[in-house]
Amino acid sequence: MLYSSEAYARGMWPRVNAYYSKTYLGYDMPLHWHVNAEVMYVFSGECVVDVEPDGEAAFAHPMRAGDFIFLNARVRHRLSVDGDAQCTMLNVEFTLAPAEGMFTLAQLRAGSPDYAWFVALGRDWCVGSDLRGELFKAMDAVVSGLETDRDATALRHAEMAILLMQLSRAVREGLQKPGATLYVRRAAGFIRQSHTRPLSLKQVAAKVGISQGHLARLFRAETGQTIAGYIARVRIDHAAVLLERSRLSVTDIAAQVGFNTRQQFGVAFKRRYGLTPGEYRIKRRSNSYPQVQRRVLEYPPGD
User: What pLDDT, in 10s, does the model give residues 242-297?
Assistant: First the structure.
């Protein structure tokens, strides 16, 4: 679907048909396929996504927090979460329709080297790690926008364009830097799993198995962030979810995600989200994205 030459010749654009954010506990989804393409993002926990292309053996993809998978239309797949384990996922499903806003797929391909590369790659599924955290922000913007104002067509188009570009960039970086990315992914995964307790570059490097200096250089080159900056970002993103989903005080949330003081937490939070924790909680509780069950959008016949 996304790679069809007809889609580019006819001025098509993705239209979101369904989306959700859900926490699974010991889940085993039946093997299935659908006419939508989709991006599945692991916000927390671990899971396995099995992909079974036509005429091929199944591929099992273990995924943890910060990992994602893109599935083109009609690719058979299933999600499983072991035993009593938990996994929170964000999912966006889309098909193609005639463009109504400011972009077409052809224009995006012409203007974005990363997306042009992604289309040329032509893979029906891709697995990667969102090391920069930008794919999560893009998916969050799409889902939050649909929850609050579905009539802002130009803004929805811009948000989808960013999602496709960030998806393409994350896939490209993962494939073009496989050796270095392995160390960076291990470091990022360890940080996501351990961010609520004190962490240092020394501890992360020891876990990954390379020197502190080498890890610091690789991590900065691939993510644009220091280890300390990445730890803070993971803590802040976790705090953002707690602000929306829990009744914990700001002070308690700061302590739970690993900050020493409420003041330190407030400064770091505002730097990333542009709002104080209290302001963010008030604003985002008007739309409950983290608690959204699967929503299927309906459009007029022939639209």
Answer: 887 778 899 999 999 999 899 999 999 999 888 999 998 887 765 444 445 555 55
The first and second tokens of residue 220, run together, are 């900065």
Map tokens 């308690």 to a residue: 252
Q: In whole angstroms, give the CA distance from residue 134 to residue 140.
A: 10
Q: Which residues contact 189 (CB under 8 A, 6 or more apart)?
A: 64, 65, 66, 129
Structural domains present in the chain: 5-176 (2.60.120.10), 179-284 (1.10.10.60)
- What span, in angstroms and rounded, lies between the C-alpha atoms of 115 and 112? 5
Q: How distant, in Å, are the alpha carbons of 50, 115, 153, 216 from that of 157?
A: 31, 15, 6, 37
CA-angle at 289, arms to 286 and 292, nearest 5°: 115
For the chain, how are helix, strand and coil distributed in percent, rounded to 5?
50, 20, 30
Q: What is the pLDDT of residues 65-106, one digit of tens each?
A: 889 999 999 999 999 998 888 888 899 999 999 988 778 999
* 265: its two tokens: 């937490």
CB 13 within 8 Å of CB 97: yes
Helix (H) or strand (E) holding 15, with range, is: strand 12-25
In angstroms, rounded to a whole number, what is the distance separating the alpha carbons of residues 103 and 161?
8
